[in-house]
Design brief:
The protein is α+β, with helices and mostly antiparallel strands and 193 residues long. It has helices spanning 3-36, 39-43, 61-75, 153-162, and strands spanning 46-53, 58-60, 76-91, 94-107, 114-128, 131-146. It has a six-stranded mixed sheet with strand order 2-1-6-5-4-3, with helices on one face.
Amino acid sequence: MNQDARIAALEHTVRALQDRQEIQDCLVRYCRGIDRGDIDLALTAYHPDALDDHGVLCGRAADLVTWAIKTHNETQLRTQHLISNIFLDIQGDVANCETYWHYCGFNKPPLAPVSLIGGRYLDLFERRNGRWGIAQRVCVIDWHGAQGDHLDPAIIESFNSAFPPSRFPSDPSNKTPYKVDPGRIGFRWKPSH
């Protein structure tokens, strides 16, 4: 590969990485804006004409964000929108993005103390005038629960006995490099019922 081809390949790689980061930054700004009650910040994730279908409300993203923050302020003390798996298919100035999310709301009485929901954002991102933003969003809810809903206690115990969470310096995250203990290989959970 000649020098020009190497430079072109490197520029392509850097552009792809920058696109991914800009899209992920949009997703984080949305979550932070909703949880902090900052309408303007949440709306920076969208293009001005964006549409959002959250099931209960479908329409302009600005209306959805305003409604969501108002509803959270009325019914919750605190909220957390956490995002995890992000699958991106970027094709030039358009990207389809599936993002897993988890929501936890610490509710005001008389609601149950905690609401838990998990789902996915299915976003159509567009780069307009050099800026990535959500053009359309569909919100999918995959599961929901409430305080007291839990896994089999044996599953929790198997995690906690192997990797007891704690503060610095004892937490498992402080033991690097991260490696599997060969002595633990095998299926360890046995149902408690």
